[in-house]
Amino acid sequence: MRVFFSEDHRLHFPQAELSGGQFVTPFERPSRVEYILRRLKERGMTGITDPGPADMGPIRAICAPDFLAFLETAWGEWKAAGNAGEIIPYNVPVRRMHTDRPPRFIDGKAGYYCLGQETAITAGTWRAALSSAASAQAATRHVAGGAGVAFALCRPPGHHATADMYGGYCFLNNAAIAAQMLRDAGAARVAVLDIDFHHGNGTQDIFYSRGDVFYASLHGAPEDAFPYFLGFADETGAGPGEGANANYPMPPGTGYPAWAEALDHALARLRGWGAEALVISLGVDAYKDDPISFFRLDTPDFADAGRRIAGLGLPTVFCMEGGYAIEAVGVNTVAVLEGFADA
Ligand SMILES: [Zn+2]
């Protein structure tokens, strides 16, 4: 299985994340990727390819122009305004105080485009986000060219990013970009299956009214888990997309039997719907020791999940998302990939 990966992910490493009322080292940090690379090499998966520069066409196909302009220019505007630290907005549009008019001043503008204030923007964030999308693009081209499967080792992750909002450690929605590229390459129906512990609110939002991309997600119930405001079971799509969105929220303490039952149900939905190509939002934060999640999956469970996903028999692009039990991230990620490859 070819792996696509860019060293430019290192350009995004905020000093701090706002967590529990304190600034802590971000859970989403560059060392996550080091553990994944180490495990890939241990297991002989050494076909690791730099994706080269991102192609802006497929990014513009998903993201709003003003949002892309914001991500590109935010750091310069923030520094020009005299701010010493990283971009962490504190004023955001909320219930009954919402507007579709982005403020002019960077302080307000950053809040306008933000959906989660745990996520700081730094000098290198834009370039890192582009490099992450480039990995997803290269993996997708590889699969569209007939490879069957590829792994995009994306960092920063993407599934929380909407067409015009960043947050949840995400800036550009890599899985959505990959899904659209598969559509453009000729697949009439593309499925995105999100097995990250967190609901991929961004991916759902992007495809919610479309009937050509099915979004299915297994995740911590929004009553109890980030992103809190989306990911309920009664969100089933809208308009032409009605019936092409399936959420499987699960409570704290969920173990593999219940999780696997939901996975099988989601896979059956995608098969019945007639998916021709598949994007996996591959987070491994459903792991029992993940510091910011509450499921109970163990390493062999991830391998079994990979085997079950392979049962669809579809061309598949894996896009890396979350996983914060740093030392186990590599083992669990590669377990999914090996389970898939062995099946
Ligand atoms: Zn996650």
Instruction: Give the CA-based shape.
Output: globular
Major sheet summary line: 8 strands, parallel
User: Residue ranges: pLDDT <50 for 5 or more in a row?
Assistant: none
Structural domain tally? 1
CATH class, anyone?
A: Alpha Beta
Structural class: alpha/beta
CA(first)-CA(last) distance: 13 Å
What is the name of the CATH superfamily?
Answer: Histone deacetylase domain
Question: What name is given to the CATH topology?
Answer: Arginase, Chain A
Strand content: 5-15%
The strands making up the biggest β-sheet line up spatially as 4-1-5-10-9-6-7-8
Count of separate DSSP helical elements: 10
> Which architecture does the CATH hierarchy give at level 2?
3-Layer(aba) Sandwich
Count all strands and give the number.
10
Bound molecules: zinc ion
- What is the rounded Rg? 18 Å
Order of helices and strands: EEEHEHHHHEHEHEEHEHEH
Features:
alpha/beta; eight-stranded parallel beta sheet; globular
Write the SSE topology:
Blueprint: E1 2-4, E2 17-19, E3 22-24, H1 31-42, E4 48-49, H2 56-60, H3 65-80, H4 106-112, H5 125-147, E5 149-152, H6 174-184, E6 190-194, H7 201-207, E7 213-220, E8 245-250, H8 256-273, E9 277-282, H9 299-310, E10 316-320, H10 326-342
Parallel strand pairs: 1-4, 1-5, 5-10, 6-7, 6-9, 7-8, 9-10
Antiparallel strand pairs: 2-3
Helix pairs in contact: 1-10, 3-4, 5-6, 8-9, 9-10
Bound molecules: zinc ion.
Zinc ion is lined by residues 196-198, 283, 285, 321-322.
